[in-house]
Amino acid sequence: MAKTIRFEALYPHTPDQVWTALTDPQALADWLMPNDFVPEVGRSFQFKTQPAPGFDGTVNCEVLELDRPRRIAWRWKGGGIDTVVSFELEAHGGSTRLVMQQSGFAGMRGMMISKILSGGWKRMIEERLPAAAARVTDGRYLRETSAPAA
Prior knowledge:
Number of helices: 3
Mean pLDDT: 94
CATH superfamily: START domain
Number of strands: 8
Radius of gyration: 16 Å
Distance between the termini: 59 Å
Helix content: 25-40%
Number of domains: 1
Order of helices and strands: EHHEEEEEHEE
Low-confidence stretches: none
Strand content: 35-45%
Largest sheet: 6 strands, antiparallel
CATH class: Alpha Beta
Strand order of the largest sheet: 1-6-5-4-3-2
């Protein structure tokens, strides 16, 4: 039986703000990993990060679903796994309820990798994604910049 990682969160941001944080390549790079993401169904893209034992640092992906601002899903293939990552958004008063899932972890290797990724996803969902959503104004992601030197 395949394992699924699942997280739920309630963000004090609109669904459009969270959607932009999930689909803007710079926002994705800031909260998840550098990428060449384009929000089009069928589009292939890659996430790149530091290599680790058994992982070359590249995650090959393909956009599977795109339903603004409710659902996005992509194939996530790398480091010996082939899974599907999805995000579902639901307006909840002035906030947004997010459900993130990564499904399809099969076999002993998949179970071990799911444990490793679960900790990373927890930090991303609880801290980094909402911080990126907070930087969305009028549908545009505003990357943090350093204050000018005095």
